[in-house]
Amino acid sequence: xxxxxxxxxxxxxxxxxxxxxxxxxxxxxxxxxxxxxxxxxxxxxxxxxxxxxxxxxxxxxxxxxxxxxxxxxxxxxxxxxxxxxxxxxxxxxxxxxxxxxxxxxxxxxxxxxxxxxxxxxxxxxxxxxxxxxxxxxxxxxxxxxxxxxxxxxxxxxxxxxxxxxxxxxxxxxxxxxxxxxxxxxxxxxxxxxxxxxxxxxxxxxxxxxxxxxxxxxx
Length: 218
Ligand SMILES: *Cc1c(COP(=O)(O)O)cnc(C)c1O
Known about the structure:
The protein is an alpha/beta fold and 218 residues long. 38% of the residues are buried. It contains 10 helices and 8 strands. It is globular. The structure holds pyridoxal-5'-phosphate. The site of pyridoxal-5'-phosphate has 14 residues, from strand 8 and helix 10.
């Protein structure tokens, strides 16, 4: 799909485009960068570390993959937004590393909304528990900016819509109960190449699009 057409579509609804550049070479990223794209998403720590070192400093790197605690340290100096916080222990580690780097880090809580079992993510109950047990130290270093989720990989639009609707519902519940006085809690990261139109219709504020922009991954 044409980059400018997509951006125009998203801009009308003030939705942020995260261009998912995992497995793509630097030159493919530069090509989009030259057209104005600044938000890029990666899912492997070593890959994003290498790309960050090689590419322009004003790129905002989003970490969208499963993150192991022992690798938080490597991305902490530069990561713009971690979409995939799915446990209290990971959140604690992000807080600890953020303190060590004297910065406040923005994250999203990842929820399991799909039927597939393999996908990572919290349940609403687990998230509530995590949010009610946050330490003061971690809260000072980590800003939770919203939620993220992946719908089931299916052509069934009803299923996908319901899952996105559920994620928005979780977002609204948590906003009401934990973040009512925190305007930074505002992001719903949902929608990929195959389902971003549905995600937009269901209230997405941030889409993560790879193959539609870069072509199929090898
Ligand atoms: C790979 C990936 C995407 C992008 O997938 P496409 O189908 O290529 O758009 C989005 N989100 C996550 C978490 C991913 O791992």
